[in-house]
Amino acid sequence: xxxVVGISGGSGAIYGVALLKVLQExxxxxxxxxxxxxxxxxxxxxxxxxxxxxxxxxxxxxxxDLAANISSGSFKVDGMVIVPSSMKTVSAVSMGYSDxxxxxxxxxxxxxxxKLVIVPRETPLSSIHLENMLKLSKMGATIMPPTPGFYxxxxxxxxxxxxxxxxxxxxxxxxxxISKRWxxxx
Length: 186
Description:
This protein is an alpha/beta fold. The chain is built from 7 helices and 6 strands. It has a 6-stranded parallel sheet, sandwiched between helices.
């Protein structure tokens, strides 16, 4: 399996970092692209600089490189996840405004009818945000706000993050045991 992972500037970089770590452990090929604000937020929230983040991915692409493999539909991948996704990125993707590699890769994912999961991070949501997400949902994207369930009685932030990452993996039918499911020794 090959997945494109995009990280943009919304708060919640911990989800993107955790996803990359799990995908690396599962030996799944990842193609990472990070916006400039995504780099900033990863360092600010997680204390990880871009060189450390690159090590978590199989391949890394500069967000300005519109000639990168992931910018073409002929480059086969199984899907893409943007985690976290800023509202700027949600807006760009919903409007087909591909001025950087992250939004172009998402555009390609949509046009090739591949799985696109967007983990938006903003609250409260304005009507503009909701309309953009609805538009993406109608195009086939899965909109997955990182809203944890508490039926599994999480005890740490890591437990909460794992539950969201597990739900993202489920969207791609990736087998894992990183989070408890309903009915599993709760």
